[in-house]
Structures are given as structure tokens and as C-alpha cells.
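Ticket opened by: R.M.
Priority: normal
Category: complex prediction / small molecule

The reporter submitted a protein together with PBG and asked that the result be attached to this ticket for the collaborator who will pick it up next week. Submitted input follows.
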Amino acid sequence: MSEEGVAPVAGPVVRPRRLRRTPALRRLVAETSVEPRQLVLPAFVREGIREPQPISSMPGVLQHTRDSLRKAAAEAAELGLGGIMLFGVPETKDATGSGAVDPAGILNLAINDVVAEVGDGLTVMSDLCLDEFTDHGHCGLLTPDGEVDNDKTLTAYAQMALAHAEAGVDMVGPSGMMDGQVAAIRGALDAAEHTGVSILAYSAKYASAFFGPFREAVESSLEGDRRTYQQDPPNALEGVREAILDIQQGADVVMVKPALAYLDVIRRVRDAVDVPVAAYNVSGEYAMVEAAAAHGWIDREAAILETLTSIRRAGADVVLTYWATEAARLLRR
Ligand code: PBG
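Result attached by the on-call engineer:
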């Protein structure tokens, strides 16, 4: 007994803290890393504007002009990012989203511009979906009674894939969650001898509240929701099933989206498939961190890097993030 009447405690033999003692030790044993090559920058390009426009719910993100998009792509290539994912915001929208297949449509022009700017120095990807181009805001074509017509939409996606391929895209990203979309796109690309264009399938894409700010970014006119085609948040097995189906149809990379509320789905998909897995750190996840940081409630840069690390740790090989350019700079330091 010691003087205070407390028995002396034997020190632990195993001390995990030993490996946390210095920055060098922590670096040595870090299990996960984030590298610029693993990051993809999603970028918006809007038709008919002279100056880039801010997006109020996504501070720091812009709707680009064709010119400012080229510069952003050049910067992304210079920083060694893995890719850029392009979204078009057309001046006019219609029921069939005709701007999506028009070679002079804003997204097709932007693909052309960016490929001309960066060549093979950056993987150029395109969002392959109708919602940015339709006046009703749905990801597909509608039947006369307003339902999304799955199989008719497949034909539209196939045409869109060809337009993107003609514009020079490296990788198309079908994000509409129609059944059979990957097969339809792969078939159309191959029949037109675009066998080298790869497919990043938004496989496990959930009907999520975290897409909110994106709808402002693309000026979506959607009323109602996407719950008949995007996945129901309670379902994880279904996410794995969707990824496997997409691989069977020819997907080269599969994606889980959003990322933070679905880290378990990223892990399950990573463990179940043998192709690269991507995750999309979406607009609402970006906005939450930016809003809290603007209030001084969290350390912004630390929160950004911790977010990206957690998505990588969950199993994502590739991360789409609005912080891609900034994160690449932070990682260089
Ligand atoms: C559909 C698409 C969406 C996003 C990417 N592609 C919106 C949706 O499905 O409602 C969301 C991305 C984000 O929130 O950052 N074209």
C-alpha cells in the first residue's frame, strides 16, 4: 500500500501511444493516404454567361464560362489531379433534354474545350444524365402520365454517350440510375467503335438530401423527388447488387454516392468487386463543412483532409470532391 492507500499500478507493456509520439512516426505507420492523383474535380459550365457565377450554397464553387473552365482544367492537370468531371448547365431546357445530344450543346462543347486544353494530362469525365437538360428536371424521359420511362431513357443515354465520345471524352459517368444503362451505353459506344471510352458507373446512388446544393448549381427545375430510381437510404446490400450488375454490363469503375453517410456501402462494395471503386463527396457534404467553418465552428482545412481520408479509408480508390484542387495544394505542403 502506498501512502495514499492506493495499490501501485503496473505500467502497461503494450503502449500504442509509442507509435503516435512524433509526426515522423505517425507518417511512417499511416495506413491510408490521400494523393492528388486519386482526386477528381467536379466542375460546372454554364451556357450564355460572360463571367463565372458563384453558387450561394457552395461557397468557393463556380458555374464556369467555357473559358474559365479551361483554366480550371489546366490548373487541375498542373496539380496532378486524377480527373475532372464535367456538368453542363444549358440556357434552355426542354422535355427531352435535347441539349444533351446536340454537338453544340454546352456539355459537348465543354468536353471538347477541356480535351483540347489538357490532352492526355488529365482524365476527362462527363456526367451522363438528362436532369441538367430537361425542363421537368428528371434524369429520364417521361411517359404521357409523368412516369420516368426507363427503356426510352436508355436510348437517350446511348445517344448522349455517342455525343460525349465524339467530343473526345475519356470516361462517361452515367448517373441516372436507370436499369440497364451501362449495357445500353457500352453497346452504343462499341457499335460506333468507341471501345476506348470507359464507363464510371454511378452504381449505388441514393435518393439523398445531400444533393441539395447541386440542384442550385445546375439550376434544376425538379419538383417532387427521384425515389423511384435512386436507391433508398436504408439499403446497403442493394448497393452491392447495383455495383455487381453494372460490372456485368461493362462498367470499368463503380461509384458510391453520397460518400459520408454511406461509408459502410463504400466498404462493402470495395470488398465485393475487383474494379476500382469511386466515391462522390457531394455538394451537401461540401456545404456542411464550409458553413460550419464560416461560423468558426470547425478547422476548415483539417476537416477537409479528414473527410477525404475517411472516404479513402472506407475503401474508395478515387474520390470526386469539390475540394480537389485545394486539397492537392494542401497535400503538397
Ligand atoms: C445527376 C447528378 C446529381 C449529382 C451528380 N449527378 C444530382 C441528382 O441526382 O439529383 C449530385 C452531385 C452533388 O450533389 O454534388 N445528374
